[in-house]
Amino acid sequence: MGGESEIFSTYEKEFATLHDTITAKIVSEIPSAATADAKKRLVNQTNRELEEADEIISQMEMELVSLPTPVREQLAPRVKSFKNDLKKSKKDLGKYALSDRDQLLGGSGGSGSHLVDMEGRNGNNGDRSRMLQGTERLQEGSRKLEEAKRRALETEGVAIETLGSLNQQREQILRTRDRLTVADGFITKSQGVLKGMQQTMMANKYLTYGIIAALMLLIIIVIYFKFIAQSSN
User: Fold this and answer.
1) How far apart are CA 47 and CA 93, in angstroms?
2) 3.50.50.60, 1.20.58.400, 1.10.357.10, 1.20.1260.10: which CATH number matches 6-168?
3) pLDDT value at residue 56
4) Burial, 66: exposed, middle or buried (Cβ in 10 Å; 0-12, 13-18, 19+)?
5) Beta carbons within 10 angstroms of residue 111's beta carbon
6) Measured between alpha carbons, how far is residue 117 from residues 95, 105, 114, 120, 123 in Å?
7) What is the mean pLDDT of each run of 10 residues along the chain (233 residues)?
8) Short-list 155, 162, 134, 10, CA closest to 69
9) Model's pTM, two decimal places?
10) What's the rounded Cα separation, in Å, for the pair 87 and 83?
């Protein structure tokens, strides 16, 4: 795509690769795990990969903010589709996690209580981790917004310079048009003068022809009276 961000394309490729890995684990590797420990290890690993995929989607959403509106509107549905795919993967993985938990809680009451305490501590650690990730996302989002603001200011500066240049060109065009109007007036006057000169030349030409004809007639008359009239006498 011509206007697509290279950063967004990189995030998209990373997400596609990671999502393929997650899908392979959920569909094939976890169900066929040889032992419960291996299955648990795969579930935990897939959970971490899901968090990483979630982070990549967040980076995509932040990158969209800095893109032009037409490109952002074109890419937003793809991000939404990625989120839906990730949501489905989480749901599918949750079935295995719930099954493992039920098996562990099926033991003695004391063991179950201890497991609940461990889950509570793990939950707190997970909350802190998510808070840290959220803070990092906010910082990254702020950076993206600042970058978008900087680009907008640069674009505004270029637009102002362009408008100034266009105004100068407009003034030059108007001055050129005025000069052409004046030149057109001079040309019209020159055409009138040339036409008058042409008429004068034609009149002088006819006058010259008339004078020549009169002189020739006068010469003929003189010759007639000088030679022919004298011969008759």
Assistant:
1) 8
2) 1.20.58.400
3) 95
4) buried
5) 12
6) 22, 12, 5, 5, 10
7) 74 94 93 90 94 94 90 92 94 75 47 45 58 71 73 70 72 79 76 82 86 89 78 66
8) 155
9) 0.44
10) 6
CB 70 within 8 A of CB 58: no
Cβ neighbour number for residue 9 with a 10 Å cutoff: 13
| Residue type at 59 in one-letter notation | Q
Cβ(11)–Cβ(59) below 8 Å: yes
Q: Which residues contact 112 (CB under 8 A, 6 or more apart)?
A: 104, 105
Structure tokens at 226: 């000088």
Which structure tokens are listed for 50?
């899901």
- Dist. CA 153–CA 173, nearest whole Å: 30
